[in-house]
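User: tokens in, sequence out, please.
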């Protein structure tokens, strides 16, 4: 969600507005695990405004990573310790990154962690960026379809802004070729991480490895041209066809997503990464990015990444956490349902992707997670776009003085204080906008008061264009009061 997403713009906003410790047995006592406050540094993923790699590389080099880390350390003024530790997450580690460069990238990231006394996490793009793998993408069996006709999809659609981002075609998660490629890729990454972690542990610095996030909002995405749900190739590999369709196609595709996450986790384990250090990354909450559609089931709306797929013996749960609506309550509920395991925010910032306000303070945002079992919070947006994007609303949320103070407070083990709500509710505002859209045309026709309504409509539209959400909320109240007959426009 992040993410960030460089394409967020006005037309989209207008449309969208209308166990800190691992579980232990009764006879087993474990020391509390390190909690990590992490910052994502981007490399090579379209649609994200990260620093460009040096010529001849897909990924950032050691100097670029080190510059990112040192800027954060200077700004916060603390790196924490084995109890609560500052970290950076590098990624995406994707299929397009050559094997030798991947190994080098991992080695360099660990070197930056050691030299700057910060932890490192690795964020894997499990399926989006694979267009350079001609050995895989040239095989139609590896490409998803939107129907039984076996016609390959036109590209994976990522709705990160007013215009969708186009990625290479959605891969088929359970085709034999993809399964073998994931196994090889996971073992390669896991083997290099294992060697580096062993060296850290020999120095008494094992806590400088924060873990592996095995996925980047894992899902079976939609066809780029049509927006249709995909996954029929995967259903074919599960033994179904047009003459023998599944009783519940959504449930079958949900299980495909679950198996794919498990495949990545087990491949990393085969390379030597401990199970408690592997996390998934799904985005099952709305976060202001989904429009209601009564025609689609919940599983289809979330592209078959329902919250239950985040729970598995092979990995630990991880979510995108943009605070709009019921995001945190939904996470608390599903985590409690599964026994309150430690979980992570794999991606998030204290602002909605629509630019609507998040929690009252960054300190509150962090408390919503660390005080409810999160073992890592990975903040997106720091430094994105360089000087040209310094006023980006994601950056303002991540880099403002209050946020810096909150980061330092966490790393000093001070109690995080939850501030009272500001009075603005994105969820309530969205409901008002839907009501205005639904009721205003008929009300104008019946009442004949278009002249009274239009100034308020124009005022509301102007405030939306300027992203002045609190003022827009009050303007929406004025318009609804007019509709309800409680006042007249003045």
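Assistant: Sequence out:
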């Amino acid at each position: 969600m992040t993410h960030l997403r460089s394409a967020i713009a006005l037309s989209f906003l207008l449309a969208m507005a209308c166990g800190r410790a691992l579980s232990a047995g009764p006879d087993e006592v474990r020391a509390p695990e390190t909690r990590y406050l992490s910052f994502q540094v981007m490399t090579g993923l379209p649609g994200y405004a990260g620093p460009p790699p040096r010529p001849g590389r897909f990924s950032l080099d050691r100097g670029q990573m080190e510059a990112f880390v040192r800027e954060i350390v200077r700004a916060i003024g603390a790196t924490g310790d084995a109890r609560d530790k500052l970290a950076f997450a590098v990624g995406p580690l994707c299929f397009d990154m050559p094997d030798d460069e991947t190994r080098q990238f991992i080695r360099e990231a660990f070197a930056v962690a050691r030299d700057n006394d910060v932890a490192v996490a690795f964020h894997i793009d499990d399926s989006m960026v694979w267009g350079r793998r001609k050995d895989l993408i040239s095989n139609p069996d590896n490409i998803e379809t939107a129907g039984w006709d076996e016609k390959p999809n036109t590209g994976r659609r990522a709705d990160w802004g007013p215009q969708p981002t186009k990625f290479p075609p959605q891969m088929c998660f359970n085709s034999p070729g993809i399964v073998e490629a994931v196994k090889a890729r996971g073992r390669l990454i896991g083997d290099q991480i294992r060697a580096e972690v062993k060296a850290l542990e020999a120095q008494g610095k094992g806590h400088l490895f924060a873990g592996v996030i095995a996925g980047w909002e894992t899902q079976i995405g939609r066809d780029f041209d049509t927006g249709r749900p995909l996954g029929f190739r995967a259903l074919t590999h599960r033994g179904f066809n047009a003459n023998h369709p599944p009783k519940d196609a959504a449930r079958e595709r949900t299980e495909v997503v679950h198996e794919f996450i498990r495949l990545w986790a087990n491949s990393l384990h085969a390379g030597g990464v401990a199970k408690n250090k592997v996390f998934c990354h799904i985005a099952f909450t709305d976060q202001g990015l989904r429009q209601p559609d009564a025609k689609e089931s919940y599983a289809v709306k979330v592209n078959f990444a329902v919250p239950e797929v985040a729970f598995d013996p092979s990995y630990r749960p991880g979510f995108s956490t943009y605070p709009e609506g019921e995001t945190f309550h939904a996470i608390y509920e599903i985590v409690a349902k599964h026994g309150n395991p430690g979980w992570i925010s794999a991606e998030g910032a204290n602002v909605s992707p629509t630019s609507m306000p998040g929690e009252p303070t960054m300190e509150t945002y962090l408390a919503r997670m660390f005080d409810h079992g999160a073992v890592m919070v990975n903040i997106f947006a720091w430094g994105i776009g360089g000087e040209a994007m310094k006023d980006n609303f994601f950056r303002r949320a991540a880099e403002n003085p209050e946020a810096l103070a909150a980061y330092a407070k966490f790393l000093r083990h001070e109690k995080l204080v939850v501030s009272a709500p500001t009075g603005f509710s994105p969820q309530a505002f969205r409901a008002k906008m839907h009501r205005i859209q639904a009721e205003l045309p008929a009300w104008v026709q019946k009442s004949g008061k278009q002249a009274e309504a239009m100034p308020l409509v124009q005022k509301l539209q102007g405030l939306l264009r300027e992203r002045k959400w609190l003022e827009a909320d009050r303007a929406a109240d004025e318009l609804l009061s007019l509709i309800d007959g409680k006042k007249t426009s003045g």
